[in-house]
Each structure stands twice: as structure tokens, then as C-alpha cells.
Specification:
The complex is a heterodimer. Chain A is an all-beta fold. Helix content of chain A is 0%, strand content 48%. Chain A is built from no helices and 11 strands. Chain A is globular. Chain B is mostly beta strands. Chain B is built from no helices and 11 strands. Classes of the chains: A mainly beta, B mainly beta. At the A-B interface, strand 4, strand 5, strand 9 and strand 10 of A face strand 5 and strand 10 of B.
């Protein structure tokens, strides 16, 4: 079956622009996660949804970052007024159930802010 | 605050060798420890995982060893192949919570 898909795969933004990154999780997966992966580093947690409810957003680095999953399926991560330090790969993962279940990752969106 | 420390940062072995990657954690609430494999341009993929009620788990050529008292766990790759060349991440979570805490990764190169 289809895995987690993300779009766009690559995004170049000028500093100050707003960007929106999309994640399509595996159908039927309850939980959805966003992670940020800087070059040469491990993924770092940003936010977590269980269905449409955002249960944890403690990893979002600033109020410029906003995520939503309005119908409990597709999710969008939005970054307002992008800064150079936002340049990273943004990974989305989904899992079937909540709590301790295997997380399946998408290929990521590589964001470069000039 | 780095809750999962991974070493080495990079590793080169010859084909057939047994690379070993080590991780240490601090949070005693962690109870699920997966390893992920990541190829360039791809997302991480689950390789093998262990819970602290066992000291070792094998799946094919991959083995996790777990030392609960030392709060350490390691990945061994038996009979390594050039196709195993990738970046490996250890991770940890409290299964009642879900989010993963990753190590910084180990870049493995298996030479032919």
C-alpha cells in the first residue's frame, strides 16, 4: 500500500516568505507527527496529532510555526516569515494507533531559506 | 538537553565486518527503543526495536543488545554488506506518550 507522502519534496523560500508543507499519512493512521531534521543531525520532534486534535506542540521552535490536521487525515505545517535557521528537512510520520506504535516516515520536504 | 547519546558519529568497516553502534539514554521512563535506517534523500525506516524486558533481540543480520541497569543499548550488524551503507539512528520513547527522541546518527560506510 501507499506510504506517507509529503509535498513539495523541495522548497526554496526567500527570507520573510511564508511556506506550507503538506503531509498525507497512511490511510487510517490515527497519529501524525512532524519532525525537523537539520543537516547531519537526528530528527527532532515538532508536534503530534491524534486524529484532528493537536495533543503536543511543545517542539515548535517559535510562534511562526503552525500545524493543523482539520479532518484527521492530511496535515499542513506552515512557517510564517521564514528565517535562514528554518532551513532543514521537515519529516512527517504516522502510526496506526496512539502510544508506542511503529512510526512510518515520509521522504521529507527539504526547505532552504535564502 | 540531549536525552539520547549516540556513538560513533561515523564508522567504516569492510564487507563482512560487524559494525557496532552504541546509544545511552537518561530518561528512565523510556520503554521502547527503535533503530532507524536512513538513506540519502529518504525518510528514516524502522529497522528493529526492543523493549527493556529483554536483553537481546535479533532480526536477520541485525541485533540489538540492551543493558537496562547501564541505560545503554547497541546495534550490531552481522556480515555487513555495501548495501547497509546508510545513516543509523537510535531512538527512545515512553510508549504511553509516542514522540520519539533520536540520537544524532551514525554514518556507516561498508567498503566492498
Amino acid at each position: 500500500g501507499a506510504g506517507v507522502s509529503q509535498s513539495p519534496r523541495y522548497k526554496v523560500a526567500k527570507r520573510g516568505q511564508d511556506v506550507a508543507l503538506r503531509c498525507d499519512p497512511i490511510s487510517g493512521h490515527v497519529s501524525l507527527f512532524w519532525y525537523q531534521q537539520a543537516l547531519g543531525q537526528g530528527p527532532e520532534f515538532l508536534t503530534y496529532f491524534q486524529n484532528e486534535a493537536q495533543l503536543d506542540k511543545s517542539g515548535l521552535p517559535s510562534d511562526r510555526f503552525f500545524a493543523e490536521r482539520p479532518e484527521g487525515s492530511v496535515s499542513t505545517l506552515k512557517i510564517q516569515r521564514t528565517q535562514q535557521e528554518d532551513s532543514a528537512v521537515y519529516l512527517c510520520a504516522s502510526s496506526l494507533r496512539r502510544g508506542g506504535d511503529t512510526q512510518y516516515f515520509g521522504p521529507g520536504t527539504r526547505l532552504t531559506v535564502l | 538537553q540531549q536525552q539520547v547519546k549516540q556513538s560513533p558519529q561515523s564508522l567504516i568497516v569492510q564487507k563482512g565486518g560487524i559494525p557496532i553502534i552504541n546509544c545511552a539514554y537518561e530518561n528512565t521512563a523510556f520503554d521502547y527503543f527503535p533503530w532507524y535506517q536512513q538513506f540519502p534523500g529518504k525518510g528514516p525506516a524502522l529497522l528493529i526495536a526492543i523493549r527493556p524486558d529483554v536483553s537481546e533481540k535479533k532480526e536477520g543480520r541485525f541485533t540489538i543488545s540492551f543493558n537496562k541497569s547501564a541505560k545503554q543499548f547497541s546495534l550490531h550488524i552481522m556480515d555487513s554488506q555495501p548495501g547497509d551503507s546508510a545513516t543509523y539512528f537510535c531512538a527512545a520513547t515512553n510508549s504511553g506518550y509516542s514522540t520519539l527522541t533520536f540520537g544524532k546518527g551514525t554514518m556507516l560506510l561498508v567498503s566492498p
